[in-house]
């Protein structure tokens, strides 16, 4: 089996110099005239960079775009991935601003125009549409930036388009879970063993120091392993309950990544990103456990996103304190919440705990989604609540 991470690194290194990557294993199946035509079309003035990867069938997938994009440093770019003779073109938009502009609509239109063309012809049709200076988005895509191109499930000899990228920040409407599920299922797992994933301590330190750039760098260092694991967990091959957990983890990770990338993110927002990352880790571990234990594990995967995965929730008083060690009565709003040892001791003794601050006061005194859910400790699922409160 191809090592997806190493393959992506090699492809990314090539793509930094040349937007056309042709795997030597399939180079003989690409006529010189076709190669020259693709190279010429790649010189167009695209709204954002376009990369074409021609790979063997066992490598080609939409998920490869995610891994390559991570290896390139997460630039905004469109990726077209194909294998000659398969009748399938995987088209994706990746990067922090994947849904801004009209790239989603262009990819959807390219898919429609390609129809049942041979693969090497279809990719050129996509390039024509992506580079069309007179392109006008169809009416149903007029809300560009908030809605991705539809992912079709074509019959044989047609072409699949699946757009992807991080969700828009909390200041803008968030995209739906189903849309993101076509993009990144960032999953956490150590390949060498089955020990549960735990967020690295430097992430908590960076959040406490409001160092979003440091958080982003540390997160990026894990992204290749995480994205590589995704290629092993294809949702169409999983039981429905496990596929739902994978998609939920994807959504949580994408939301966290967007918060970390947001230059306007507050310390309270970065703490929220930690909670979302922890949620994604719990989702992956739940699926791993389900796969390891068969039907018994599959039933376990039906548990709610907050409770399963055998990963302690983060301290709801201040998520930068790290994993909770107990649950306590919430000091506001009722219910039970997770707390670290120190916060639990402070509340038990009647002392004011070390609250996460927002605007110079405990975050619970504000009107953010973090305050209304105590960082997901009470009420509805935090990921769903973020979508609901921001109009997705």
UniProtKB/TrEMBL annotation:
Keywords, in A-Z order: Membrane, Transmembrane, Transmembrane helix
Transmembrane regions: 166-188
Domain of life according to the entry: Bacteria
Disordered: region residues: 133-159
Name of the protein this chain belongs to: TPM domain-containing protein
Species of origin: Brevibacterium rongguiense
